[in-house]
Amino acid sequence: MGCQYIKKYSDFIGVYEKLYHLQADQSLEEIYDLVEKVLICKYKISIHLLFMSIFNAIRYNYRSIAIYVNILNNILKKHSFKYKDLLQYKTLNEHGDLCSDEIHSYLRISKKSNTSNQIEFDTNSLPKEGEIQYMIIYDQVDKFREYVTQHSLESITIKVPCFIRMDPIEACCYFGSVNIFFFLISNYDIKITKQCYQYSFIGGNIDIINKCKKNNEIDEKCLNYIISSHNHQCLEYIFQMDLFDPQYIDGDLIIISQNLKVVFLLLEKHNNLVTPWCAAFPQTIDVFKNRSIDFSKISLAGCTAIHYAAVGNSNEIAEFLISQGVDVNAKNDYNETALHYSPYKETSEVLISSGIDINAKQVKGYTALHLAVNINNKEVSELLISHGADINSRDIDDKTPLLYATENNCKEMVEFLISHGADVNAKDKKYNTPLYCATENNCKEMVEFLITHGADVNAKDKKYNTPLYCAIKRRNKEITELLISHGADINFKDRYGTNMLHWAAKVNNKKIGELPISDIDEVDIAALGLATKENSKEIIKLLILHGADIKAKDIYGNTVLHYAAYGSDKDIIEFLISRGADFNDKNKEDLTILHCSAKGNNIEVAELFILHGTNVNSKDKSGKTPLHYAAENNSKEVAELLILHGADVNSKDENDITPLHYAADKGSKEVAELLILHGANVNVKDNYQRTAIFSAVDNNCREIVELLLLHGADVNLKDKYGQTLLHYAAENENQEVVEFLISHGADINIKDENGRTALFYATTNCKYYKEIIMFLLSCGAFIDTIDKDGKTPLHYVCENYYDHVSELLLSQGAYIDSKDKDEKTPLHYAVLTDNSTLVKLLLSHGAYIDSKDKDEKTPLHYAIENNNSKMVELLISHGADISSKINLSSKLNLEKYSQGSQVIT
Asked: In residue terms, where are the ANK repeats (predicted)?
């Protein structure tokens, strides 16, 4: 029976097979002609489903994306569909968009006026001749062979949209590049993975498939890839040999790929394998009429056959199902009826005439009208409204269909809905109205239309913003004028107390000065400061004209000049000073204008303020001068200017930090050189007894370390905690700096206040860089030095679970049974941290298994305390003495380990 149907619909099946197996050089006219004549005209497949299937084809045949885009554009042009509307169409497949995000990221709507409804794609995303991906795609084995003689195979990864990055062998399987595939497996030790087998069904090369199938089985992904890529040769084989598990069948995927052949092959196996989803294929009408079909079967998402009939515009199947008593109002797990899935007039009419609830809402509150409007489907919208659909129905965000139409900038739909009674001032949960949405979209025609139909120009959203705020934010003079001319309140304030001039200043909307705004009530420092930061002289003049106080301060004590100092140009500063701005003002942190210009690396402004007599050594509340900020922000030019005018290069802030400390901390070598050149003391200490070189080492700035040592920095100086530069470098795992410091006289065995040398810091921090430890040892670091707690480096690595460092120390002769002040050995700590790997390592190097600490406990006692039966077993198997007694309560029964020996109590 299935074969009979396959033959009957061979043209439909054949066109899709050709469509999925396009070659990049194939004739566009030939394939488009087939699509138009067979799929669209004869079988009347919907444009939505056709686009969905072509996007799916791109996923599995990415090299032919250019020809696919041309086919899509031809369809759009001939059938007057809008690409942006098609992208809103939802499928049953996990409620995902028509086009996957990753494929869509390569495509865009043309911005050219003559092709505004055409799709463009980024040609730069395609590999070019000579690139490794191009070689693999087109199986250029000779060029590939030459390429890999100059590049490591491990460095090659291939990016295919919608898939994780592939290595070369996987990419060969995906693209069916058989010559490179066999070159790789013949010349490299390459494992053929499960992913290779899965991708081989997309590439469809039989030789590759046969090579990959060894030790691999057909799994769910294999089946999905076979179906999605229309690999019918493999499809027939696995069906004939029963090599698939029926539970792998994904009906939604079969619909998306429009693989009708799978439907009929499954039908030969059993009816239940194709229900309920086969209803999405109108060609299965005879199956429903002539075979015993279980109409009650539902999908995993709760969809019935009638839902699927709506998806595929299978109106005959829908009529038949309803005639057989199928519930037209059946809902799936998302509370959706078939009407939610029907963007087609014919099937929608069948459902409505059969009594479907036209205003039913799904879980997000969408009615069928919401969904029809969202894809700009006027035909279905009109049908729904004519049969009583609530035109002002709200979803869970309180959005009406009109709000969606304005958000999508669909003027014709907006006009249609309003003409049928849609509330023009309906607000969603954010209190956005259609007028606000239209203003947000910069659509003047829509704004004008809504206003003339009663839209409230002063409607406020939850942040108290009006459409006027939005127009100014968008720098749209025409819409701003339009709103004001229709009564928009120019004195209205948002919840932060800012008015339209603040908004204009914030976005540097220079066109605001051209508007009729003479009635603005008040302007404060915030608006003036924003305009100054944006370098907008026109808006500054406008604000002053409307009463902005040039000497006003914000809540932080900043004047307009503080704002200007960060980024404004010299002309604006001079203009503000000419209008009375005080250049000696300080804010609440005692920052002068000169501090701010140094922070903002604004040399022109800094120079101007210095010429006006600003104190170059003024300190803020933290004790910083402008030179501190210039050094901190790597502002060499500003620092040079300040020094030239008398800045103190050794000035200290409240933490005794000098500009040189800040330059070293930020890696500002040029500033550091400048400061030293002008007398900065390289050995000045901060309140932690650290000189500038500590900051350089702490931030791994080798060049500055070298510079400071060259100018007399003490390499063995200790900070407040007794740590030297070498301690810092070892802790930061910076081998280059460690080597450099030792080569310049750093004492390798000097101890901090806790008695720890650089080796301690290296072993407890260099989890992955054993080279530093080896270097320190090779330079004479004492491997068994003890700190104030009596611990050696080996104690710490055992305590911190660093197995490989322990192995290194043991291999270099570390004393394995050293005891700390609690008389614990490294083995005690390994057991305490439940590290069986480390315990085995220590025992293999001869650690004394029965060593006792000051509490008379052996490692075995601690294993029992930790209730670690595996550790107990390990220790006993290595000869631990289980007769040793202390007062210890244990939950473990040791009899099974002791084989009759006395148990610890």
From this structure: 301-333, 364-396, 397-429, 430-462, 463-495, 523-555, 556-588, 589-621, 622-654, 655-687, 688-720, 721-753, 754-788, 789-821, 822-854, 855-887
Domains of the chain, by residue range, sit at 130-216, 270-356, 809-905
> 195 phi and psi, to 5 degrees?
-65, -35
| Count of C-beta atoms within a 10 Å radius of residue 48 | 22
Q: Give the C-alpha separation, 167 to 180, whole Å.
A: 13
**Average pLDDT, consecutive stretches of 10 residues, N- to C-terminus, the chain (905 residues):** 84 95 86 95 89 89 89 87 62 42 60 60 79 95 95 86 85 96 94 93 95 88 93 88 82 93 89 88 92 84 93 94 95 95 93 98 96 92 98 97 94 96 96 95 94 95 86 82 86 62 49 45 50 56 62 75 70 72 83 89 86 90 96 94 96 96 94 96 96 94 94 96 95 90 96 96 73 91 96 92 84 94 96 92 95 94 92 93 63 49 41
CATH classification number, 270-356, choose in 1.10.357.10, 1.10.540.10, 1.10.3720.10, 1.25.40.20: 1.25.40.20
DSSP 8-state code for residue 582: -
What is the pTM assigned to this prediction?
Answer: 0.63
| Residue 113 CB neighbours (<10 A) | 6
- Angle, helix 803-811 to helix 836-844, in steps of 10 degrees: 10
Residue pair 451/486 in contact (Cβ under 8 Å)? The answer is: yes
What is the Cα–Cα distance from 782 to 809, expressed in whole angstroms? 11
Beta strand pairing call for 107-109 and 119-121: antiparallel
CATH number of the 809-905 domain: 1.25.40.20
| Nearest by Cα to 657 from 625, 635, 679 | 625
> Is residue 850 within 8 Å of residue 865, measured between CB atoms?
no
Spatial CA neighbour of 693 closest among 669, 665, 666: 665
What type of residue is 39?
A: L
**HSE, side-chain direction, 13 A CA sphere, residue 284:** 34
Helix ranges (H only) for 453-517 are: 467-473, 477-485, 500-506
Token representation of residue 168 = 């070369």
Q: How many residues does this entry show for the chain?
A: 905
